[in-house]
Amino acid sequence: MYILNFPNGNSQEYKTLSELMNAASKLGGTAKSVGGKTYVFVPKK
Predict the structure, then answer these.
(1) For residue range 4-44, what is the model confidence (pLDDT) as tens digits?
(2) How many whole angstroms from its chain centre is CA 43?
(3) Strand partners, 42
(4) Are 30 and 24 in contact (CB under 8 A)?
(5) Reduced DSSP (H G I as helix, E B as strand, rest coil) percent helix, strand, coil of the chain, to 5
(6) Neighbour tally for 41: CB within 10 Å
């Protein structure tokens, strides 16, 4: 499982990296790897 952490403290799990990247894109940002299968959401400015 891949975990996407949001700035507000929430997190979401995804089965694949492509699902995670898709979700980040739809939310108007990108996902940055912070190690292993953990990513943080970076909103586009």
Answers:
(1) 999 999 999 999 999 999 999 999 999 999 999 999 999 99
(2) 10
(3) 30
(4) yes
(5) 20, 45, 30
(6) 21
